[in-house]
Amino acid sequence: MADADDQYYPMVDMDTCIACGACALSAPQVFDYNDEGLAYVTIDNNRGTIAVPAPFVSGMLDAYDGCPSASIQIQKSAFNNCQHK
Ligand code: SF4
Fold this sequence. Notes:
Blueprint (H helix, E strand, L loop, with lengths): L8 E4 L10 H4 L4 E3 L5 E3 L15 H10 L5 E4 L10
Antiparallel strand pairs: 1-4, 2-3
The protein binds iron/sulfur cluster (SF4).
């Protein structure tokens, strides 16, 4: 699935995120943490509606691969549902 030339729409499942703090180390332009340390996607407030800008795709995929709870979901088209932080 991982092809750095493709467009990716990431979204964090904040119900399963364990607030480990890893994803924003790999992709600080894409992920940040709320007051509880749970991660969310900054570029669209975790709605999964905006594709990651090309320069940040590689880091986002590293975060996806490294998430210990598999909480980072990615699609090649926008998510329809909406999950707020
Ligand atoms: S790497 Fe996964 S578990 Fe860790 S903060 Fe990010 S989304 Fe949460």
